[in-house]
Amino acid sequence: MKCPNDCTVETICRAEVKKHMDEDCPLQRVACRYERIGCTEQVRRQDLERHLEEEKDRHLQLAMDSVVELTLKVDEMAIKVEELTAEREENGLQPPDEVGETYSDEFDFSAEISPPVSPQF
Which of 7, 35, 40, 102 fits as disulfide partner to 3, beta carbons 3.0 to 4.6 Å? Predict the structure, then answer.
């Protein structure tokens, strides 16, 4: 069988087509490795290195934008932790001494939990 993308591979065993398309075919469109931080480009595997080289300034900007966004989220979470800690102290509860220490002595975990209900199709 020929490659569905009509690449230079002459014949591919039918059982190997998916592997060829997922891993090897130079004409297969693949997502940019910076997709997670916002690059939406889909380029042919053979053009990926050129894309990475040509778009490195844009990728750097996307990375910086992600760092700023994550920093803001961390700051928000730190404020929330401070608020929750103050609330606990106002209620007469002491925060754990160490990270990872639990509040299990304050909660009753002995109640039975019902198993999840499977959706009916």
Answer: 7
pTM for the structure as a whole: 0.63
Residue 29, classed as helix, strand or coil, is strand
Instruction: Tell me the pLDDT tens digit for each residue of 89-111.
Output: 888 876 666 555 555 555 555 55
Adjacent-strand bridge partners of 43: 30
Q: Does 44 reside within a domain?
A: yes
> Is there a contact between 66 and 37 (Cβ–Cβ < 8 Å)?
yes
SS3 121: coil
Q: Which residues does 14 contact at the CB level (< 8 Å), separation at least 6?
A: 1
Q: Which domain holds residue 44?
A: 14-93
